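Ligand-bound model needed. 1,3-dihydroxyacetonephosphate.
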Amino acid sequence: MPRQFFVGGNFKMFDPPNGTIKSITDIVHNLNGAPLDPKTEVVVAPPALFILLVREHLKAELEVCSQNVFDKPNGAFTGEISAEQLTDSGIKWTLIGHSERRVVMGETDEFIASKTKAALDGSLSVILCIGETLEQRDSGRTIDVVTRQLNAVKAKIGDWSKIVVAYEPVWAIGTGKVATTEQAQEVHKAIREWLGKEVGKEAAEKTRVIYGGSVNEKNCGELARQDDVDGFLVGGASLKPACEFCLFLFFSAGTGGEC
Ligand code: 13P
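Prediction:
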């Protein structure tokens, strides 16, 4: 069975017009009308404030994802949201381990692993983000870094069937500097080999490994043709005004093209 192509839109906290009720509602409206490829799984991750709005208005075939989740099922943790609260609200996915949370919020490999366990225990599926900084790449440590990040999660969970691994090199996020197809394929292949060795043959065959970092309508086609690239996690381009309609179409078809 081929792995189902997967496209995630990570709607970050950009300046208006991208982060308002109106702009989010417009995107939802466009997505609802877009002739998306039914073979592709599409998941969008709005800021927490808009999760219920998006779930209420987005068509049922498309899933909503939180950008964060806490590692405890309940308790006095002001400002946090639990997996149970998300599933109760009809949310089936969460992002965990995004580099912006690792770097800016100081989230450690261990905390990310705890959050992954809590999310799975709370019946969520997880987009687990991993990736190296430019300094780590330049010093030849890319595979070591992603292996360390994966090992931390493996120490806390055994079942990877509800995890999508998102390889997002930090130097490619929001920079316009997309990984080359060779760079992406090399790391995705290494991630799949790690899954085969550390989790099992079935996990290696079935786990989607998606790419994120400056993906757009022009570069997505070639990336999608790489053997071990099973989809994308898209930041800025998923919010382009009046453009997300065709972007999602291109990503879904995996063909790329001009807007
Ligand atoms: P950009 O597509 O804006 O580079 O962001 C990628 C990303 O961080 C998705 O999670």
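The mean pLDDT is 92.
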